[in-house]
Amino acid sequence: MLIFDNLSLIFIGLILLGVIPNLFYMAGYLPHIQRKSYFLIHYFAFIFSMLGVVVANNTILFLFFWELMSLTSWKLILTDEKQKGVSKIARFYFFMTHFGFIFILMLFLILSNGNLESSNFALLKENASHFIYPFLLFAFVILGFLSKAGVVPMHVWLPYAHPKAPSPVSALMSGVMLKVALYGMIRFLFDVLYPWPLEWGITILILGAISSLVGVLYALSEHDIKALLANHSIENIGIILIGFGMGMIFDTLGLKTLSSFAFIAALFHIFNHMSFKSLLFMGAGSILHQTHTKNMEHYGGLIKSMPITAWTFLIASMSISALPPSNGFLSEWMIFQSLLNSSAVTIMELKLAIPFALFALALTGGLAIACFVKAYGITFLGLHRSENAQHAKEVNPLMQTGMVLMTLVVLSLMLFTPWFIGYFDLVVQDFNHTSVYDIIFSHGIWQIHSVSSNGGVVSPLILLGLLLFITTMLYGIGRIFKSKIRYHHSWACGYQTNASTQYSATGFAGPIRRFFAWLYGHDEKLKTITLSNKNKTTYDESFFEVHVEPLFESTLYKSVIKVTRLISYYIYRFSYFEQHQHYSGIIFSLLLFVLFSYRIFMGEFSWLSFIIELVMMSIVTKVLILGDKK
Amino acid sequence: MILYILTILLLLLIAPLLTGLIKSIKMFLFYKRPVSIFQPYANLNKLLTKELVISHESSAITHLAPWMILSPLLVTLLFLPPIFQGAYYIGFVDAFTIIGLLSLSTFFLMLLGLDGGNAFGGMGSSREAFIASLVEPAMVLTIFSMGLIAKNLGVGNAALNLSTHFPVEHAASFLFAGLSFFILLLAENGRLPIDNPETHLELTMVHEAMILDISGLYLAIIEMASSLKFVIFSSLFVTLFIPYGLNLIAPLALLVFVGKLILVSMVVALIEVNGAKLRLFKVPNLLGIAIVFAFLSLITFYLLGV
């Protein structure tokens, strides 16, 4: 019924680490919520269902908890039902999560041979080994679990859905729920669908590389702070998948130690992303709680009024930007090392292709730094940009406790890296992979070694110690000079410094947005209102607006809607016989159809004639039956 | 060990000298009367005794950031490759950590730009973020290729490997990686095709715009940090990409090393004299060249075999 192997146990640990600080934060946030009992029921059911998913060892139980998780999170998005546009977004989320659910259901139905009640993962593996189209199963795993994890191109719902939920729930959804979806993928790939062909690893690697770049680029153009963080979740899931995909590739090629290292890196990044993303969402929730707006352009100067939020947010920002010696740096370093280990791969095409994933990951890292300088600088530094930001105060002690506890989780992931890696090593050992703990920490726990012979070494604690030591020493030396301090206003070319002379978030991301214009498809509007409609005066007001339409949404999703509409329109025309002269046309094209299919069924098949006949059929159908669209 | 500490002190002391050297070479080539190459020391000395003017609009970040800009660079200084054989060096740190430490320094510099609440700082930070994010992939790819050629990712070990057994069969990829790294050296230090360190015009400022509001001790720290960054990059460049002279006896090797640093400064000065600043949106083209060179270096390495 239930399974408690190491994989399940570390995911239970992950959920608990994410949930316990969140409980404090939620308790502080609760007065802000109107429908309290509604919220609480769904909140606890949501946590319970996530725990259920990671321990279920029975198909019907797994499906039950999975569906419960989807439904409770859907209801949690609807907590504040009066929010603008929330019902539309909740509907979208409901649709997308069930889009994935259908594939998971199909996967289970195929693998359990109809015996849903009493089949566990061992039985599923047995059935999977007999199934003749394993790639179909893999595709179902990708579509089912990764659409929940928000991997490009199935990510469009994520930046809409996560920000709409109350902030503690956003933290749980981005920090923990996405990881539970990854748990599903890992469980299936390791436990049921092992061994993997080479293409599977490559597919995962490509999906990861694209997700990481797309996520961070859309995050940069976002002004809604919670949507920015949600976009960063897409990026980080991509980074995790890069590590995981490299592990799969190495495993298929028989490089067992390298593959264990890459899997450990991916698992470590799962934990790290949980910690800093939860903390960032909590910080964003605190700001939202105080300023009542999600728009970053209305923040500014909050470090003066909300110090605890600001400093915890800084730690999380450094961690997500992968700056040493934070935990985010360590796991990203490990994933980089896994990519560098690709020089051991013997297939030349693959070897030449993997640097492109390295390029994507490095560009992602650079853009993430830019993005978090923007998020931190515009939100916390400078002058208050609006009335709301002026009146912001530090949040209540319970919410502060939540944030501080989460900061401790972030710091402990950095300080106790060997201990965590020891557990991840047990997980990969469970699935018959080589243990690499002794290689990683071959020179004691102070240094993390890459597993390849000429790989790199990093030592987080020594780095941290050196940084702290040198900074305090410098500070001590700096004190000798006893500089006098004079306070004065910032220089603004002789004008007065005020909130509107500062750089805005839109302006900050301007160069990058312009460089990647093909991806954003943004339109910029400059509107000037003059007093006399014609001549310029000194009392003119100008507005500059940038609207970013995500490429995937406009091409992939809207075109599906368009095509569906077109098809349904012609089906309508076809079924109602609006024009009588079409009877003869229908009969003619039916005759053609019979003629052509007769040739095919008689075995006289060739692709050329097939294509010609297809073109003829479609022309005849379009001209004689369908006619022009009205 | 004593030599190790002396080397670090030498690099610390030589840092402002190189900045002054570039400046005076440029002035000489412009037919101006060159300033003394020791001018940066005088500037630092002046700044240290001046009073600090702190902006009303700024926050605690202004007091934290200068230290956090300098200290990662000082930590990086400890991990640089040895300048002659047999010298003590910290070998366990790899190039990724060094890239990360440099990013940490840049991160706080960008925050400092946004802290003052004036438009210049934000503008500088925005441009720096744009450039730094495009530098990162080229840097990682170059480092990867370098690690493969030198058979070690740790910069110290890589430099020693290269100086003892130079891989002649990989000279092509070595050359590509060197070109790419030199472009990155220019970009990361804000030298001329990317950023003009001498101008105070809002159209062209990147680095200077971020620190426009800073004065006194903090400005001295940041000036020191930017010249240290140049020393770090140029000493990485000369030990990795001009790997000759490490096996000489200690005093001679030191002289050769300093000579190579001066050579790099002269090349940078010559480029600055002969070129104009690129428009901000032309900068990606130059960095794109660096990325392409890095890819070429990797591809030639793989195709020629190990």
Percent of sequence in beta strands of chain B: under 5%
- For the record, give the distance between the C-alpha atoms at the N and C termini of chain B, rounded to a whole number: 36 Å
The total beta strand count of chain A reads 5
Biggest sheet of chain B, in brief? none
List the helices and strands and how they pair.
The complex is a heterodimer of chains A (630) and B (306).
Chain A: H1 6-29, H2 36-55, H3 59-77, H4 86-111, H5 121-130, H6 134-149, H7 158-164, H8 167-192, H9 198-220, H10 225-252, H11 256-291, H12 302-305, H13 307-320, H14 327-340, H15 348-380, H16 387-390, H17 397-415, H18 417-430, H19 437-440, E1 448-449, E2 457-458, H20 460-480, E3 485-488, H21 505-508, H22 510-515, H23 517-520, E4 523-529, E5 541-547, H24 551-576, H25 582-601, H26 607-626
Antiparallel strand pairs in A: 1-2, 4-5
Helix pairs in contact in A: 1-2, 1-8, 1-11, 1-17, 2-3, 2-8, 3-4, 4-6, 4-7, 6-8, 7-10, 8-10, 8-11, 9-10, 9-15, 10-11, 10-14, 10-15, 11-13, 11-14, 11-17, 11-18, 13-15, 13-17, 25-26
Chain B: H1 2-29, H2 39-49, E1 52-55, H3 60-78, H4 95-115, H5 119-150, H6 155-164, H7 171-188, H8 207-210, H9 216-241, H10 250-274, H11 283-304
Helix pairs in contact in B: 1-9, 1-10, 2-9, 3-4, 3-9, 4-5, 5-6, 5-7, 5-11, 7-9, 7-11, 9-10
Question: Any overview of this molecule?
Answer:
Chain A has helices at residues 6-29, 36-55, 59-77, 86-111, 121-130, 134-149, 158-164, 167-192, 198-220, 225-252, 256-291, 302-305, 307-320, 327-340, 348-380, 387-390, 397-415, 417-430, 437-440, 460-480, 505-508, 510-515, 517-520, 551-576, 582-601, 607-626; strands at residues 448-449, 457-458, 485-488, 523-529, 541-547. With 630 residues, chain A is mostly helical. Among the domains of chain A are: 1-194; 513-551, no CATH class; 553-626, no CATH class. In chain A, strands 1-2 form a two-stranded antiparallel ribbon. In chain A, a hairpin with a 7-residue loop joins β1 and β2. In chain A, α4 packs antiparallel against α6, α4 (86-111) packs across α7 and α9 (198-220) packs antiparallel against α10 (225-252). The longest helix of chain A is centred in the middle third of the chain and has 36 residues, at 256-291. Chain A is globular and about 100 Å long. Chain B is globular. In chain B, α2 runs antiparallel to α9. Chain B has one domain (2-304). Chain B has 306 residues and is mostly helical. The relative contact order of chain B is 0.17. Chain B is 71% helix and 1% strand. The mean pLDDT of chain B is 88. At the A-B interface, α14, α15, β2, α20 and β3 of A face β1, α3, α4, α5 and α9 of B. β3 (485-488) of chain A pairs parallel with β1 (52-55) of chain B.
